[in-house]
Specification:
Elements lengths: L21 H10 L4 E7 L5 H11 L2 E10 L2 E7 L2 H16 L7 E2 L1 H6 L4 E5 L4 H11 L4 E5 L7 H15 L2 E4 L11 H11 L22 H4 L7 H13 L22 H16 L5 H17 L2 H16 L21 H4 L42 E3 L9 E3 L7 H15 L1
Parallel strand pairs: 1-2, 2-4, 5-6, 6-7
Antiparallel strand pairs: 2-3, 3-5, 8-9
Helix pairs in contact: 1-2, 10-11
């Protein structure tokens, strides 16, 4: 008998929309003897690394995808390989670019521009929409997604969608549109949805699921719901067998940064730093130059000049595009270099790079005082898996923020944090 594989699954990395951690979902999949499990969080792949790690430990094949709003309709995108994962990440970045924080939307035309090595699951009930998706993304890669959550209307919706798919020549695929690993998590999910809509549970009732059927189910639970549509239950396994995304970050390395002729990465970084120093400090004191010299020595010793140049280039690019390229400090006090420990002063490789040489104007927030950026001694961990960048100034203004959808490869984050720690020692 063909095993059932869940291809539409939200974790708590679908912020305020998922009630279970990727590790809990992977554990439940293993208990159900599910050979593979996809994680398709809304508008991002924030939980991908946790998902990969948890699944591999439990012998479950991890599949990576995302749920994306395309022209107002949901579309599930699943990466077949690393190229497909790259296309998916590019699409997600574009979908976030012009939207409010936490929202991701794009158009079918944009998805088509980055098609290839992706599977697409469409839950639409519109025949014209399904045909449009097929025409734009390729008939062989588009599947009509079928659900059955034991609501009174689900049987005829399932029947109508399957008939529509047959008319369009589309394959059908069964999913359970999972939002938590066990039925008991429905209450937590209800609370999360209410928070998302800034409403009480009573006020948010129209946005809540009517039952707890959106949990992770095995084949024994799904087969009775899809009698007569056995093909839809077999399709997920066919898709899973074609997916192979191995994000082995040990093999990933930062590309070299192209520097002007006659420069090395460190000499170019050195030049940028002192240009920024002359722009922001009037007068330039010996304390400031000593601090900058010390920071540069640490960077040279750890071989991270290109890492900092890439961060500088990212900030420059974001500023040119009008993006949120903020400095990493709101300090309004001069540095007390005499009292700072060496471990604190060498924490110079945070997720956003050296705030003190970023090319922001003197009037930018955080630089108005013309003082050296102050950093926290140890960057706090982030529950979403991406690093947090300290923006600590005085105790009253201390805050942290996630790096957001434009985060750096894990190997670089590890390199930065480990090198800084060793330098501090």
């Amino acid at each position: 008998m063909t095993p059932y594989v869940e291809l539409h699954c939200h974790s708590n990395f679908s912020f305020l929309d998922g009630g279970s951690h990727p590790a809990e979902l992977a554990m439940r999949a293993a208990e159900l003897e599910m050979p593979a499990l996809a994680l398709t969080d809304r508008g991002g792949v924030y939980g991908a690394v946790r998902h990969l790690q948890a699944c591999r430990k439990l012998g479950v094949k991890p599949i990576i995808g995302s749920a994306l709003e395309v022209d107002g309709d949901e579309l599930i995108l699943i990466a077949r390989n690393l190229k497909g994962y790259s296309n998916l990440c590019r699409l997600l970045s574009l979908a976030h670019a012009d939207q409010p924080k936490g929202e991701a939307r794009t158009t079918l035309a944009t998805v088509a521009e980055h098609r290839g090595d992706l599977f697409y699951l469409s839950p639409t009930d519109s025949e014209s929409r399904l045909r449009d998706v097929q025409a734009a993304l390729g008939k062989e890669s588009v599947f009509s997604e079928l659900h059955h959550h034991m609501r009174p209307e689900d049987p005829w919706i399932l029947e109508g969608r399957a008939a529509m798919a047959k008319r369009c020549g589309a394959q059908i695929v069964a999913t359970n549109q999972v939002h938590y690993h066990l039925p008991a998590r429905r209450r937590l999910h209800d609370v999360l949805v209410a928070i998302r809509h800034r409403a009480t549970l009573d006020e948010a009732r129209e946005h809540l699921f009517p039952n707890s059927e959106h949990h992770l189910k095995g084949g024994s639970e799904m087969r009775p719901l899809f009698k007569g549509y056995e093909e839809a239950l077999a399709t997920p396994w066919d898709i899973a067998q074609e997916c192979d995304v191995d994000l082995d970050f040990r093999k990933v390395r930062f590309p070299g940064y192209p520097v002007p002729a006659g420069e090395t990465p460190f000499s170019f970084l050195y030049k940028l730093c002192f240009e920024g120093l002359r722009e922001r400090y009037r007068p330039i004191t010996s304390a400031v130059t000593r601090r900058l010299q010390h920071e540069l020595e640490v960077i040279e010793k750890t071989g991270l000049a290109e890492f900092f140049l890439i961060n500088w280039d990212l900030m420059r690019f974001a500023k040119e595009r009008g993006g949120p390229a903020r400095p990493t400090s709101t300090s309004t006090s001069p540095p007390n270099t005499a009292s700072r420990s060496s471990s604190t002063s060498t924490r110079s490789t945070g997720g956003n790079g050296p705030g003190w040489f970023a090319t922001s104007s003197p009037s930018s927030r955080g630089w108005r005082s013309g003082r050296l950026a102050r950093r926290s001694a140890s960057p706090p961990s982030c529950s979403t898996g991406s690093p947090k960048v300290s923006t600590a100034g005085s105790p009253k203004t201390s805050r942290t923020r996630c790096c957001g959808p434009f985060h750096l490869p894990t190997c670089a984050r590890r390199a930065g944090s480990s090198s800084s720690s060793s330098a501090g020692r």
